[in-house]
Specification:
2 domains; alpha/beta; 11 helices; disordered N terminus; about 325 residues; two-stranded antiparallel sheet; 8-stranded mixed beta sheet; 10 strands; Spore Coat Polysaccharide Biosynthesis Protein SpsA, Chain A
């Protein structure tokens, strides 16, 4: 088996989708446009009820004379982690890359990660992750999401704890050795396998030039559902690996950063509720000067907080997701 950038090193690119017919064409086109060879593409339709599977099959059939082999797997609606596992089991490559159907990898995505691996062949590199760029879109929510992700990547160092789902590739043998993607996991399957790989003695390398474009997250409800889902899955991660993270091969603790972009907003909802409580107390108790001072100051803060309504709702979705995660842990479901 050849390593690094050798032309014989096959990379299997995998993508899973459910009810995403409008994204299939652009995503698949970006995959076949990769400047690295050889590659194979494995797509999993996770029980779609729209035309996703048909679009996948049509694209595959239109490329039958192409140098890239495209496989399409149809399954029941089992979830993303189960879909990634199906793709892994069908992969032939030494490396298995993962992305999402709402992503458009740049043409050098795979080649940039392979080149990064070539620089660190002396290390036990088991995964390489690139950089996801969220389109800003046209709404306040999409701009917040785009800029938050940008700041998160700016803080990344060479060694990381998360090989992100939209933009990463793994050594297939290393991924199989830790059990692959558990079909029971509810979301955060990329974080889970990343931490398990580090625990097994591997390293995850960040390559900032391996770019993947993500469509804008335009709608507020979609944004809140995803942040709730993140928090719910994060509860499982913390319960299994602790708050501090895991040890890397050198013995240093590497903190997981799955929801680190939410640290500044998670306490907004509790602070707002405390502020309303203080206002109520100040108005019903004996009107002494210091109470009026506390009430006035709190009221100003509350009114200021209400102008940050998107962040308040974001905070609320995180707390709700945490409650759901606690419920999952109590009843031993969704990967707990």
């Amino acid at each position: 088996m050849h390593r690094g950038g050798n032309s014989l090193t096959l990379v299997s690119i995998t993508v899973c989708a459910r009810n995403a017919e409008n994204w299939v064409e652009q995503c698949f086109s970006s995959l076949v446009s990769q400047d690295y060879r050889p590659i194979e593409i494995i797509a999993v339709d996770d029980g779609s009820s729209d035309g996703t599977l048909e679009k996948m099959l049509n694209f595959r059939d239109s490329k039958l004379d192409h140098e890239i082999e495209i496989s399409v797997i149809s399954s029941e609606p089992l979830g993303l982690s189960a879909g990634r596992q199906l793709a892994l089991e069908s992969a032939n490559g030494e490396w298995v890359a993962i992305t999402d159907i709402d992503c458009r990898p740049h043409s050098n995505w795979i080649s940039a990660m392979i080149s990064a691996y070539d620089e660190y062949t002396s290390e036990n590199v088991v995964a390489i992750t690139g950089r996801t760029i969220f389109s800003e879109g046209n709404t306040r929510v999409s701009k917040i999401r785009s800029r938050t992700i940008q700041r998160k990547y700016e803080r990344r160092t060479r060694l990381v704890t998360l090989a992100n789902g939209p933009c990463s590739m793994f050594r297939r043998e290393a991924l199989i050795a830790i059990g692959g993607f558990n079909p029971c996991w509810y979301h955060a399957e990329d974080m889970e396998v990343s931490l398990l790989l580090i625990q097994s003695g591997g390293s995850i390398i960040y390559e900032s030039t391996a770019l993947v474009q993500h469509v804008a997250e335009e709608g507020l409800l979609l944004f809140l559902r995803k942040r709730c889902r993140d928090a719910r899955a994060h509860f499982r991660i913390v319960r299994r690996f602790g708050f501090q993270g895991v040890k890397n091969p050198s013995g240093s603790i590497m903190k997981h950063d799955f929801v680190s972009d939410a640290e500044k907003v998670v306490f907004l909802l509790p602070i707002l509720l405390i502020g309303f409580s203080m206002c109520g107390l100040g108005l019903v108790l004996t009107p002494k000067p210091y109470w009026w001072g506390i009430t006035g100051t709190t009221l100003i803060f509350v009114l200021f907080s209400l102008t940050k309504w998107t962040q308040i709702l974001w905070s609320a979705s995180l707390w709700y997701g945490g409650i759901l995660g606690l419920s999952d842990a109590i009843f031993r479901r969704r990967g707990h």
